Amino acid sequence: MIRPVPPGTPGRTAAAFAATAAAATVLGVGHLVAAFLDPNGSPFFVLGATVVDHTPKWLKDSAIRWFGTNDKLALAITMAVVMLVAAALIGQLARRNLALGAGVLGVLGAAVAGLALLRPTAGPAFAVPALVGTAAGITVLWLLFRVPADRDTGTGPTRRTFLLASAGVVAAAAAAGAAGRYVGGRLRDIAADRAGFVLPPVADPAPPVLPEMDPPVPGLTRLVTPADEFYRIDTALQLPALTRDDWRLRIHGMVEREIQLDFDDLRARRAVEKMITLTCVSNEVGGDLVGNATWTGYRLTDLLAEARPSAEADMVLSRSVDGFTAGTPLDALLGNPDALLAVAMNGAALPVAHGYPARMVVPGLYGYVSATKWVIDLEVTRFDRARAYWTDRGWADRAPIKTASRIDVPAAFATLPSGPITVAGVAWAQGRGITAVELQVDDGPWQPATLATAYSLDTWRPWTWTWPATPGTHTLRVRAVDGTGTVQTDTRATPFPDGATGRHTRVVTVR
């Protein structure tokens, strides 16, 4: 039997608005409290990080494929929609029984507090923002349902009164959230910290980029990717706020000597500069989750040598300040002068989105096993003793980057005039280099492209080819040959579990 709605109870729409205002209060107040304790304890970010951690592989791959570097924005919008629906349902429960609606809100808030305590870097204070926010939300729900009744009918508050009250609460919650962002920014002013960063003296600078390494073809990817155009794929819904004063790097595990470094310790060491192309394992054939930059930092092989790893160790488990982990083969770091603990990108402090104040950059390996951002911990261990974030989800333990090539111009489905057409793109095989690129039109013979002068084995290599285009619809296909003589495979494979394979094609029409 359905319990009748008590007299004076707000209507369905008004109840949904009231519960939405209560939910907004939970998030806004929780975010403000988290600003004083730890921004990662914000209820919204706790929920987001939990969703990211437990997203099935197929859904994660789909999100990156559909939204690219906007995947986190898509997640935030999806979470907001789900929260609105949940709040509306709580509002309908509260119409029947206010104590029941408030109780459900309390249980959900307690669950978020519990999830906060499960975060990798959580301390007891992580639960406080959710608990305080939930208490405030329940109070708001109770007060809104007690808005004075309509004096004319005595049946409940007018729609206008209720909407104004709810809107006022939502505005106050938004103000609390904004205040949380402001306070958090003031307490952890990363912008000011980055502005005070001074590029360390470089004992071993990267060679200059010569004109013949970077052909000026319109639409062709440039040799160096600007920091604001560099792809970003990580698990951080909220960018970590870590200053240079707060940063520490611990090297431990299967070592003879545990060491801990701060930024002053780094400054006392010899900085080097390397240009290295990074690639995300989620990059599809022809995709843009790849970028090339000049990185300034300190050789990881030197830092690890100070700790003296055990001969039985074969892996370094790196950990980010937000709890993300990556397992890098130890032999990819020891004796590799190009593997860096990077502190600068393209001659400036690392952008926060790319790991400020320090991150790993290891050429030749996909990022999920080598490119930990905001890195604070290096544990020397073994693959049979430790699992990293993505390898624990089925991705390969060792992930060398596969030989790949991409057509940048002409654009897909472009309409072109007949005659000579410039086809251009980039190819990469970090650690092996590119020795040849070939193009095929339809099912015709493979034709050699002209390679730009190679910058190094660890960077992508631009190429161009002049095509005598004839009228019709044509398929352009590209393949690369790496420094070992291996031809890029035509076998199609998805990114999971160790990187996509196949040859990039473009369909164009010639008039």
Task: Describe, in short, the structure shown.
The chain is an alpha+beta fold and 511 residues long. The chain has helices at 12-37, 43-54, 57-67, 71-96, 98-117, 128-144, 159-187, 190-195, 263-267, 300-307; strands at residues 202-204, 249-253, 259-261, 271-279, 290-299, 315-320, 325-329, 340-345, 348-349, 359-361, 375-381, 404-409, 415-416, 419-428, 434-441, 447-448, 450-451, 461-469, 472-482, 505-510.
Describe this structure in words.
There is one protein chain. The protein has 511 residues and is an alpha+beta fold. It has three domains: 12-187, no CATH class; 202-393, Oxidoreductase, molybdopterin-binding domain (Sulfite Oxidase, Chain A, domain 2); 404-510, Sandwich (Immunoglobulin-like). It is 31% helix and 23% strand. The protein has ten helices and 20 strands. The strands form four sheets. Strands 1, 4, 5, 8, 9 and 10 form a six-stranded mixed β-sheet that branches. A hairpin with a 5-residue loop joins strand 2 and strand 3. The longest helix has 29 residues, at 159-187. The protein starts with 11 loop residues before the first helix and ends with a strand. Mean pLDDT is 86; it is low at 149-156.
Topology:
Blueprint: H1 12-37, H2 43-54, H3 57-67, H4 71-96, H5 98-117, H6 128-144, H7 159-187, H8 190-195, E1 202-204, E2 249-253, E3 259-261, H9 263-267, E4 271-279, E5 290-299, H10 300-307, E6 315-320, E7 325-329, E8 340-345, E9 348-349, E10 359-361, E11 375-381, E12 404-409, E13 415-416, E14 419-428, E15 434-441, E16 447-448, E17 450-451, E18 461-469, E19 472-482, E20 505-510
Parallel strand pairs: 1-4, 2-11, 13-20
Antiparallel strand pairs: 2-3, 4-5, 5-8, 6-7, 6-11, 8-9, 8-10, 12-14, 14-18, 15-16, 15-19, 17-18, 19-20
Helix pairs in contact: 1-4, 1-6, 1-7, 2-5, 4-5, 5-6
